[in-house]
Design a protein that fits this description.
It is a single chain. The chain is elongated. It has one domain. By secondary structure, the chain is mostly helical. The protein is built from four helices and no strands. The relative contact order is 0.18. α1 packs across α2 and α1 runs parallel beside α4.
């Protein structure tokens, strides 16, 4: 994912799904208020124009996502036959 540069909104949603699952990730984004984002939800912060990377970092801190999982899943190379 985007460790150094800006993060796209689509990358944010991929990280959310990879870490929390589709349904819980979307529920978390809509319902969980984050103090680091002025008590906004991730969805509210996105709608207000907050950088997705800042939102992802706030969620990781709030939900105790281990550091080694904060950049997302490593893509697996295709299997050789």
């Amino acid at each position: 994912m985007a460790p150094c540069g800006p993060m796209r909104v689509s990358e944010f949603w991929t990280l959310m799904t990879d870490e929390f699952g589709d349904a819980y990730g979307r529920s978390l984004a809509a319902d969980h208020h984050l103090l680091a984002l002025d008590d906004r939800t991730a969805r509210e912060a996105l709608d207000a124009g907050v950088e997705p990377k800042e939102i992802w970092r706030a969620l990781c801190e709030a939900m105790d996502v281990p550091v080694e999982r904060r950049l997302g899943k490593d893509p697996r190379p295709p299997k050789r036959r």
